């Protein structure tokens, strides 16, 4: 992965919000949703792109054996200081990390699309290798229709920390862009760029990596008329959707 924006963006985003360890109760709803979407019992969990570890921490309360992989050392240090000590926390690149076991569940939420299509395919192949024969992966995919529609929209995303956001869309490369800055420093922006995939496109990538999509779960979106986040929208209008995959 050669994208040089990745570590600076997530490190600065972490600093913007100062203390990312929200009330763990805020994540119990996401944990319940994960259990519902998996639809069967599971024990061994791998979360890649785990950030500050808050989701893994919440999931660990449901008696799971969890391994996390996160690239940004500052986020890993925070996770190690605040997470359940039973969680195995790795600071590594998920394109090259060496893992010696397979998992019932692999999670990659809110981050797929960092690299090129070739790198996405490599990651999906790795996810296939990490899964047990009867295991599942849940992966969030950014939906191109939404990002085309919201291009240029700005919003205040944190009243407390005075963080602004501007959505964008790179039509040539089919990538969403997400620019953040503090109101007091409008010229000091950080931007992430993540590939967007239609359902047909991500289905093809998964097939090439030996994975079968068995469910699509549309996520929410910001209603630009009311500026409120709607938790559930249609598959064609959502900000991102989640896929559930298994080995073919």
Provide the fold topology.
Blueprint lengths: L5 H11 L11 H11 L5 E5 L5 H7 L4 E6 L2 H10 L5 E4 L11 E6 L8 H14 E12 L1 H7 L3 E5 L4 E8 L4 E8 L7 E6 L3 H10 L2 E8 L2 E3 L4 E3 L9 E8 L1
Parallel strand pairs: 1-2, 1-4, 2-3, 4-5
Antiparallel strand pairs: 5-13, 6-7, 7-8, 8-9, 10-13, 11-12
Structural class: alpha/beta
User: Low-confidence parts lasting 5 or more residues at pLDDT below 50?
Assistant: none
Shape: globular
Topology order in helix (H) and strand (E) letters: HHEHEHEEHEHEEEEHEEEE
Distance between the termini: 26 Å
Secondary structure tally, helices: 7
CATH class descriptor name: Alpha Beta
- Please list the strands of the largest sheet in the order they lie side by side: 3-2-1-4-5-13-10
Proportion of beta-strand residues: 25-35%
Give the C-alpha Rg: 17 Å
Counting DSSP E segments of at least 2 residues, the number of strands comes to 13
CATH topology: Rossmann fold
Main pleated-sheet profile = 7 strands, mixed
**Rounded mean pLDDT score:** 93
Total number of domains: 1
Helix percent band: 25-40%
The CATH architecture designation is: 3-Layer(aba) Sandwich
Can you give keywords for this protein?
Rossmann fold; 7-stranded mixed sheet; alpha/beta; 28% helix; 248 residues; globular
């Amino acid at each position: 992965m050669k994208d040089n924006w990745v570590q600076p963006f997530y490190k600065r985003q972490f600093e913007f919000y100062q203390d990312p360890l929200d009330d763990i109760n805020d994540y119990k709803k996401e944990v319940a949703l994960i259990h519902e979407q998996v639809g069967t019992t599971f024990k061994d969990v791998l979360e890649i792109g785990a950030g500050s570890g808050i989701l893994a921490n919440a999931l660990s309360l449901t008696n799971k054996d969890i391994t996390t992989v996160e690239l940004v050392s500052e986020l890993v240090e925070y996770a190690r200081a605040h997470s359940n000590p039973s969680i195995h926390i790795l600071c590594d690149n998920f394109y090259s990390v060496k893992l010696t076991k397979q998992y019932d569940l692999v999670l990659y939420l809110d981050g797929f699309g960092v690299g090129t299509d070739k790198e996405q395919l490599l990651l999906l192949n790795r996810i296939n290798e990490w899964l047990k024969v009867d295991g599942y992966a849940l992966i969030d995919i950014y939906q191109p229709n939404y990002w085309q529609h919201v291009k240029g929209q700005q919003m205040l995303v944190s009243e407390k920390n005075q963080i602004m956001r501007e959505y964008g869309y790179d039509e040539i490369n089919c990538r969403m862009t997400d620019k953040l800055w503090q109101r007091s420093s409008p010229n000091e922006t950080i931007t992430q760029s993540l590939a967007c995939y239609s359902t047909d496109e991500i289905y093809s990538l998964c097939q090439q990596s030996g994975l079968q999509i068995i469910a699509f779960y549309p996520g929410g979106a910001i209603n630009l008329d009311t500026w409120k986040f709607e938790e559930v929208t249609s598959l064609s209008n959502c900000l991102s959707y989640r896929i559930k995959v298994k080995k073919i």
